[in-house]
Design a protein that fits this description.
Blueprint: H1 2-33, E1 37-48, E2 51-61, E3 67-76, E4 80-85, H2 94-100, E5 124-126, E6 130-135, H3 138-141, E7 148-158, E8 164-170, H4 173-192
Antiparallel strand pairs: 1-2, 2-6, 3-4, 3-5, 3-7, 4-6, 7-8
Length: about 200
């Protein structure tokens, strides 16, 4: 009987350690996902003749795990818009390139997960240390008088126990401020059919 109890206690201890390690790893990974939206990762294209506009966001995977970006949403006072992965831009290795040129390069163990590409036009898998570009549907840029209030990104990542977790992250104000100001200025210029100011001439709130 004592052997059985000892075995059960050992199994419970191992399970507890595994759970604690998994919980800590997931918490660390989710904290890293908060840096997925770069404060400088906003792209704009604009033309008056013919009238056209584009707005893009860069999303980074600084983690050592494969992640899926399920949804990128910008919320306005009255409406919201969902961005889609850019079809004309492939993945970039910007996070890895930034690490390569540092004085020290730490050994990284890549977490293999069960994330596979699907047919969802709004989602995309980002391998470790890569960056993808998401774009606003051009037809929505001048559709309303957009007043953005917040933004969200939904991520999926594989856990150590073989399943996956889906989390929603709000875009930090440090990044959202540039997103809001840049998009609203583009929106105003598009609707009023006037030139977009040069970066050095743009007023910032």
């Amino acid at each position: 009987m004592s052997d059985v109890l000892s075995a059960l206690s050992a199994a419970a201890a191992i399970a507890l350690v595994a759970w604690a390690y998994s919980w800590g790893r997931n918490l660390k990974l989710e904290r890293s996902l908060k840096d997925a939206i770069s404060p400088n990762g906003v792209g704009v294209g604009y033309s008056l003749a013919p009238l056209s506009a584009e707005f893009t966001l860069q999303i980074y995977n600084y983690t050592s795990a494969y992640i899926r970006v399920w949804s990128v949403v910008l919320v306005a006072e009255k409406w919201h818009m969902e961005l889609s992965p850019s079809k004309k831009h492939k993945l970039f290795q910007t996070p890895l390139s930034n690490e390569v040129i540092r004085p020290e390069f730490k050994r990284t163990f890549i977490s293999k997960g069960a994330l596979e590409e699907d047919n969802n036009p709004h989602s995309k898998v980002l391998p470790p240390k890569t960056m993808g570009i998401w774009e606003v549907w051009p037809g929505s840029i001048g559709q309303h008088d957009w007043k953005l209030v917040r933004g969200f990104v939904v991520f999926e990542y594989p856990t150590l126990f073989g399943n996956t977790a889906m989390v929603r992250m709000e875009i930090p104000e440090s990044s959202f401020k540039l997103i809001r100001e840049t998009f609203e200025e583009l929106n105003t210029c598009y609707r009023e059919r006037r030139p977009l100011p040069e970066p050095g001439q743009r007023a910032r709130a």
